[in-house]
Design brief:
Mean pLDDT: 89
Shape: globular
Helix content: under 10%
Strand content: over 45%
Number of helices: 7
Radius of gyration: 26 Å
Amino acid sequence: MQSPILSSRTPSWRPPCRSLLRRSTALAGPVAALLCIPALIAPAHAQDAVPDMMAGEQLPPVTVVRPADGVATTGPLNISYEGFVPADTGTISAIEANNATLWTSDSGSLIDAVPGGASWGAGGVSSLPAVNGMSADQVQVSIDGMLFGPACPNMMNPPLSYVNPAMIGQVKVYSGTAPVSLGGDYTGARIDVTVAPPTFAETPEVVFSGSVSGFYRSNGNVVGTDVNLAAANNVGSVNYTGGWVQAEDYKSGNGTTIKSTMYETQNHALSLSRKLDDGLVTFQLGGQFIPYQGYVNQYMDMVDNKSFFVNGALEKSFEWGQLEANAFYNNVRHTMGFIAPDKTGDMPMDTQASDMGYRVAGTLEPTDRDIVRIGNELYYNQLDDWWPPVEGSMMMGPDTFWNINDGQRLRVGVFAEWERALSQQWTAILGARSDVVWMNTGDVQGYNEMMYGANAAAFNALNHARTDINIDGSMILRYQPDEARQLDIGLARKTRSPNLYERYSWSTNAMAMNMIGWFGDGNGYVGNIDLEPEKAHTASLTATWRDPVRKAWEMRVSPYASYVEDYIDVRRCALPGCLANLPDNLTATEGFVYLQFANYDAYLYGVNIDGRLDLWDNPTYGKGVFRGNLNFVRGQRVDGVNLYHIMPVNATLALDHILGNWTTTAEVQLVGAKTEVSEVHNELETDAYALFNLRTSYQQGPFKLDLGIENLFDTEYDLPLGGANLVNYQVSSMMGTSPAWGYGVAGPGRSFNARLTVSF
């Protein structure tokens, strides 16, 4: 449903700034001054008057597609504005996600393309998303309305790993000031992924369509295939999408094989949809199978991962408004171990997790200027995490180690939201929600009483039940004097309760602590049952300027700031067991250390700038488009400690060119030096670097050929969010070999990539 965003009734979008400022009210005056900044640039591309917008008329969605004629380039990111959504929302289309399979099979890495987005290095298809400095559980991921809790103590199977890029219909990334109707229990961002949206034919006869792709990437000897199939008539639709990919260890820019980076994965999703008189009903089922996935920055590897989900959704219009509902169930069976020859040993670690929930929301329009949204949602996560005994081992036997025993996390939320067109230029959204989170877990035990008994007894003596009552609120105010300029101001309070591992991981044994943690830093972690929920207070401002006539350019500037009460970070563990592991654990400035989850107040601030500009457009030379973005974020606790895994300043500059059936992109990625590191984690610094990428595609009828070279100059660099390399670099001791501290994870060197797609 489109929102009544109104535009001023004016004969031209180019009123003199002096006149605009003179007519502005006390509230609009500063806003008008800011929007007049590019006044010298805008007239160069605006030659005709914009159409009149009558009061109460809906403004059509403005979609910016690079380049013209709806042809997607081989570069990432197509920004769209649909209805009243925050202007800093980043959108990745199906075409762009599919194009990305030329250089990646990791859907999490697609987030790198949106303003403020980044991804934590992990397995080849399992990176964790970060947005504006917040990451992991602070960023909530929804896939067709389904939510997924952590199902591994290293988060080896994050939600975005359940879909490959070619399965994606659309990705929308909302910042921390997003409307409360989108969801609760996150403080950083919300990522909504749509998989295989239904397609319908115009006739009662069934029409078959689809595509098959095969691809190869030289670095890592990556081979894979993607399949999309659809059968539909005018009322029903059946869609299948899936893919398989296999990769060996990749090489860095200097030719070093980065061990434990191999993987194999397959994903499948089947969707059945039927049109109703005034709506749509959809049923989905699918699953994933990962037989192995190496982790260079973890002590363990994934040696088996199976998941299965069912999901049902209903959209229906009534006289009173629109109803949206969905319900889902997901089950994950996960095992960690060692993949030889890079890692050897015998220490199985098993996890079984279930996710289920529903969401019901209603949208009402009591007047032609108002929209009201109300809703209720429930999400339940159940988790068992156990480590079977190792036969013949005194340290890892004779009993099963129970890390999480029947962990349960139930969240029930309600929300109400009011959107109102205040005038022809001003629109506002005001919303509030409440989420109650109940958490509990059963008693635990270690491998044996001698080494783990005291820890287990102390934990079992505690009351494990915890209840959090979380209150969220958001306000977004939009000022749009005309189609050329727009200003969005957002204020929000968002809360997140701890996950089961953050609260209930209990052992301070060195081996057990090293098995906990998704940070990839080589450190050991223990939970904290008394953690408080995070409360993020965020303010954002997004100023947008665009050419409304020729659509030849657009620019956005989005500064933001967050103050987070009870930010869930870590402290050096001072428990007796931790100090027995490492006597100087509280003071060590080098080496791997032992950490405990803890609350601290923290703040983050930054700015994202992105834009595009048509450089030329003629029949002889085709069309050339320049695009770019610049992202900066800084995060620190109030005690002066830097937050972990904050992306350094970075930018992407690209030239997209279309000539006939050819689409070509030349891109440079610039990343600054990472010097603001977390002292508590003993986080590693990384140097600045630049990567050059070339991509081209040729479309002829149903055939499309994509070619590319990533990291053209074979640059050697370390991933700023890659953590520590725990495999390539080892030191010897009386106990054998162990990882050496001080070595980051090198990024991939040059790769020659190709993909062939046949559509029908």
